């Protein structure tokens, strides 16, 4: 009888160990950004006579109507943002995350709105609509792989890959350019990013050929990178919850201790030149959480690198099967986020206690 009890105890311990390993093992492959700053190539062969990737010019509506106008216009209609975040691109992000249904953020430079990122399904992004089926977009918008911008500093030709066309095509709207983030799993429009010429050329989210001078942004100082990374962490939490809201899932609570664990992993990857869930210095997610004395029922991790910013990283995770599954896991209750320059780590936890 005693032998049987011992054998049953060993089996139970083994099964518990397997469950722990399953939830703290790598949930998905590392994700390196396609939506990243590309190295441009000078050329003498740019033709600006093009068709496609454009919308007929008309007066902008909804949130887009504030583009290239004083931010006072937005303040009059929407009030103060919940916070103002720095970015590495010369503008500040004004974050409107009070309601996941109306989530948007605008980039403000010299008191003027120069870019908009909109995710909430109730944000007016005419002529598009968040959640709009892909077939509707394809019927109304011609998409091509090349888009030429004439600027006072030169000519700039963006070249989109087939993957770009499938998940983040670029469309010309007069003097503005809208990036359509496609949710390829749901088959609809996840979010949009509107930019003026200067922002698009400075960020270079696609392959770029240019003639003339290249628009550059001053590299942030070490102190500025710390502030930018802390702001990106908050944006990752806000956007994660806005995305979960679309799928009728609970919002996640911020967890300070887990965020510290996530930050150390992002910093470790950046400083030691590797990109993986398992660190040669601190082990896997289970090891890192144990080292941080963090208790949980279940845990998962997403990592990403070299994306333009938090919105781009979030859209990348959404379109990657393993990362999406982790981000949209119904049982998770808490989130820790750590960003070091352009390395991102999300650590998800399920807790049934506080």
TrEMBL record:
Q: Where is this region: Disordered?
A: 26-57
Q: Which residues form the CAP-associated domain?
A: 67-206
Q: Which Pfam families match?
A: CAP, CAP_assoc_N
The UniProt entry, under SUPFAM superfamilies, shows: PR-1-like (SSF55797)
Domain of life of the native organism:
Bacteria
Q: Taking every annotated instance into account, which residue ranges of this chain make up the domain SCP?
A: 238-347
Bias (Polar residues) occurs at 26-35
Q: InterPro entries recorded for this chain?
A: CAP_assoc, CAP_dom, CAP_sf
Gene3D superfamilies, alphabetized: CAP
PANTHER family named among the record's database cross-references: SCP DOMAIN-CONTAINING PROTEIN, SCP-LIKE EXTRACELLULAR PROTEIN
What is this protein's name? CAP domain-containing protein
Q: Which source organism? A: Mangrovibacillus cuniculi
